């Protein structure tokens, strides 16, 4: 009964916040009119939008098969890339304001003078983000099964309804403020579960019971090279995922961005260390028979740990924290996907369309994307982590090269921009099917995209010259 009460309270708060921040203009809906003035709100909402049920379920359980390399590589790359992301955030915010960009494709279009590049990137985001939503829906529905005893499909329906309501009403302001609340729940749940496992088994004793092969940097069932690539690919999203960048766009000024850069990396460090360690800690508290059963389905490990090692009621808080992680990510993804589709692609096809029409279509299309992803999640044959790794990696790779070069290299132009998008996307797809499995496709995409960007820009020097004022630090 307590689980249902907690969920009811949580949903009520979300709906009240979405109504409080309801928006009537496209600028307010997509960008909060650049008026978010509290650094902690942006920093922790950024963390909540990045991590999801995929990290809580997939990230926690993946250590069972990947071993210690998963913990070390994930913790290192997440913290390192989070710090780099917030070091660049001031420039990103300045560029978005200078170009009056409401979406990431729009920012890159105006930096390079390339409507074609904007449409290509928006199309890539539409396809890959829809794929990315599928494992997140899977995680959320699985968690709702454990929290309130509904079926998997009922969990999917519940998720769609709640996220659709607060997305359609409040837009980015609601997503950011609700994301802050969800981020606090996520951090509390991660710390609670991690500390509970340590205290139950003895902080030092648990490590003495973990077998040497689980703590070896060689990995368990998955080679360390593959784990390295997967951790790198997922963490790269911190630098270039549009659903995170849009939160930087929303800040009122650079001071807000600067101080948000404290809350973001710190919260990411705490969460990643606590969650990604759970698979290793499980070897110190579970029997060999239990470990074998979870290796077959690693995504079920974290709900089991929450129900087993937390007092009654506290397990519900941890599962609710994971559900929060899922909903925050879903809402942010749907926002950037639909605004890119309606604002970028639709404006390209029909330049005279009104903002009021774009806003109505943005709300409608967002609900359609939510429903499509949920239906696709009814049958998901793969584990969560590999699905997240490839879909998130492709998007981040396609944005990373033109964004970073565009901020720091004046000679980049529209030809380099388009060439990098195509080279990154095509090389990743080809390598995913035909390349060496130990080398993650995102490494190949970054190399090919970077080479195409530099080559295209140098051989067509003078096209798409950037505004020098925007590039000032």
TrEMBL record:
The chain crosses the membrane at residues 36-58, 70-96, 116-134, 146-169, 175-194, 230-250, 262-286, 316-337, 358-378, 384-408, 415-434, 440-463. One of its GO terms (cellular component) is plasma membrane. The keyword Transcription does not apply. Keywords: Cell membrane, Ion transport, Membrane, Sodium, Sodium transport, Symport, Transmembrane, Transmembrane helix, Transport. InterPro entries: Na/Glc_symporter_sf, Na/solute_symporter, Sodium:Solute_Symporter. It is a multi-pass membrane protein. Signal peptide: none annotated. It is found in: Cell membrane. PANTHER family: SODIUM/PROLINE SYMPORTER-RELATED (PTHR48086), SODIUM_PROLINE SYMPORTER (PTHR48086:SF3). This is Na+/solute symporter. It comes from Methanothrix thermoacetophila (strain DSM 6194 / JCM 14653 / NBRC 101360 / PT) (Methanosaeta thermophila).
């Amino acid at each position: 009964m307590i689980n249902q009460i907690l969920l009811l309270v949580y949903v009520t708060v979300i709906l009240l916040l979405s109504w409080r921040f309801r928006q009537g203009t496209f600028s307010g809906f997509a960008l909060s009119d650049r008026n978010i003035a509290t650094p902690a709100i942006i920093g922790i909402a950024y963390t909540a939008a990045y991590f999801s049920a995929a990290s809580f379920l997939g990230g926690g359980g993946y250590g069972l098969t990947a071993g210690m390399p998963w913990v070390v590589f994930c913790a290192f790359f997440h913290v390192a890339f989070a710090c780099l992301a917030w070091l660049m955030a001031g420039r990103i915010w300045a560029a978005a304001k200078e170009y009056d960009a409401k979406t990431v494709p729009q920012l890159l279009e105006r930096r390079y003078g390339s409507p074609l590049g904007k449409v290509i990137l928006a199309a890539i985001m539409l396809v890959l983000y829809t794929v990315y939503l599928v494992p997140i829906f899977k995680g959320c529905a699985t968690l709702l099964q454990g929290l309130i005893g509904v079926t998997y499909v009922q969990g999917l329906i519940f998720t769609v309804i709640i996220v659709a309501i607060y997305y359609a009403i409040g837009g980015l302001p609601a997503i950011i403020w609700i994301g802050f609340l969800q981020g606090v729940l996520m951090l509390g749940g991660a710390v609670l579960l991690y500390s509970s496992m340590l205290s139950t088994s003895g902080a030092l004793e648990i490590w003495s019971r973990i077998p040497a092969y689980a703590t070896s940097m060689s990995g368990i069932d998955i080679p360390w090279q593959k784990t390295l690539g997967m951790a790198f690919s997922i963490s790269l999203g911190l630098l270039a995922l549009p659903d995170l960048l849009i939160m930087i766009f929303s800040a009122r000024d650079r001071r807000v961005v600067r101080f948000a850069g404290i809350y973001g990396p710190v919260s990411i460090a705490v969460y990643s260390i606590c969650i990604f360690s759970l698979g290793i800690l499980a070897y110190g508290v579970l029997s060999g028979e239990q470990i074998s059963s979870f290796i077959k389905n690693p995504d079920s490990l974290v709900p089991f740990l929450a129900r087993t090692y937390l007092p009654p009621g506290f397990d519900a808080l941890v599962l609710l924290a994971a559900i929060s992680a899922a909903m925050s990510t879903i809402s942010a993804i749907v926002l950037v996907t639909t605004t890119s589709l309606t604002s970028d692609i639709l404006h390209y096809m029909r330049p005279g369309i009104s903002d009021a029409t774009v806003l109505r279509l943005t709300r409608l299309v967002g609900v359609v994307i939510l429903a499509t992803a949920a239906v696709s999640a009814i049958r998901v044959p793969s584990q969560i982590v590999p699905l997240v790794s490839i879909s998130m990696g492709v998007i981040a790779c396609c944005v990373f090269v033109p964004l970073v070069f565009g901020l720091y290299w004046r000679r980049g132009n529209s030809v380099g921009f388009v060439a990098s998008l195509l080279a990154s996307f095509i090389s990743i797809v080809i390598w995913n099917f035909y390349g060496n499995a130990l080398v993650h496709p995102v490494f190949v995409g970054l190399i090919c995209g970077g080479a195409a960007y530099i080559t295209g820009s140098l051989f067509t020097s003078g096209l798409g010259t950037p505004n020098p004022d925007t590039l000032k630090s």
